Amino acid sequence: MVIKNNISSLPYNTFGLDVEIGTMIQIDSVADLDELYPHLSSDYKVMGGGSNILLTEDISTPLIYVNNRGLEVIKEEEDYVLVRAAAGEDWHQVVLWAVEHNYGGIENLSLIPGKCGAAPMQNIGAYGVELDQVLQVVEAYDLGQGVQMSFHTQECGLGYRTSHFKNIWKDKYIITSIILRLTKEGHHHINTSYGAISSELAIRGITSPTIKDVSDTVIHIRQSKLPNPKVIGNAGSFFKNPIVTKEESDRLLSLYPDMPHYPFGDQIKLAAGWLIDQCGWKGKVVGHSGTYKNQALVLVHHGGGHGREVLDVAKAIQQDVKEKYGVELEAEVNVW
Ligand code: FAD
Ligand code: NAP
Questions:
Q1: 332 noted as active-site residue
Q2: Contact 249, 285 (CB under 8 A)
Q3: Is 307 in the pocket of ligand 2 (CB under 6 A)?
Q4: H/E element holding 81?
Q5: Ligand nearest to the CA of residue 197, numbered in listed order
Q6: Buried (b) or exposed (e) across 114-133, using 16+ Cβ within 10 A?
Q7: In angstroms, rounded to a whole number, what is the distance separating the alpha carbons of residues 232 and 332?
Q8: Residue ranges of the chain with per-residue pLDDT less than 70
Q9: Does the predicted model carry a pTM greater than 0.85?
């Protein structure tokens, strides 16, 4: 365990925001949590890679920085492996490791920033795949009772960019590792349902893609479309895509026939980025903040600004989309 006092948040968040962290406690193992438990009150925050957090004020409660490591196959069958990844492992490195070993299921989730421990928080998803399709177990530490717990995926309330960890269990558990069930050669389910993947594969002349082809393609698309947080501060999509009733979608489609919309159970998913773009926000700069030029759903911080400026832009966008379309946008990013 490493404890640091009065440090800058700059290296710890992808928005590139600078607030003061009063006390940061770096956890390198579950044993560190056992040691910490008797000394910690219930008031604390947890951080992984800081890629889904908007910092709007100094952090005065203790901040637990999850940094435990470990990646191993814990069970192998003819058609699948179970892999345990420690919460402090970088998610994308785990994806690359899986692809290299020809273990399938997470290739569509290539290049998502952050650590494995945060992956169940919002059930990370991209290009038609969500974590819950491969997640078996979440191992977590209950800092209220000082015990290690184990939850099966079905118990975790995973849904579209949500989970119990993000809602009713908020700040109750520290996720210490995740166990994934990944397919072996001959048993992969290649998913190229998202248009961007299939058209990029077609450009490359690939008709029977491997999991590596899919991973490479996703990496290529993301690098060309999304801002690199090392260059422009951001936390990916700032808002969730709104889910509306079929009636509401039909009402909007009668007014805006070009509006992208996708079936979502018996409801309809709208594209938040399109709604924001149509309100004239794409690429807009407001002070130190704004939206990204290639994807209006990504709010950016150009440096030297304050998290509250980003929040103000987010609120202005919510208001404009509500006024024009009558649709509420809900933040996906965690605002601290
Ligand atoms: P953090 O930002 O550190 O934390 C996020 C939340 O999880 C916080 O509430 C924190 O308290 C909590 N938390 C973190 N670790 C733990 C733990 N071990 N135990 C308990 N709670 C914890 N997300 C997607 O779903 N799909 C995408 O395609 C995607 N693309 C992105 C692209 C870019 C360029 C960026 C910057 C972000 C993107 N994101 C995407 C968002 C983000 O990368 C993910 O949500 C990621 O899982 C966050 O991981 P993190 O370690 O950075 O979490
Ligand atoms: P995009 O391809 O421009 O598509 C816009 C939106 O339409 C996406 O949000 C996506 O919803 C939806 N969509 C597109 N094709 C779809 C299909 N065939 N079926 C159902 N829904 C479809 O999106 P993008 O911004 O470039 O992002 C590409 C993927 O990466 C998306 O899955 C997106 O969620 C993910 N991503 C997530 C973040 C984040 O921070 N959460 C950041 C960047 C990218 P979904 O979002 O539900 O997939």
A1: yes
A2: no
A3: no
A4: strand 80-86
A5: 2
A6: bbbbbbbbbbbbbbebbbbb
A7: 19
A8: none
A9: yes
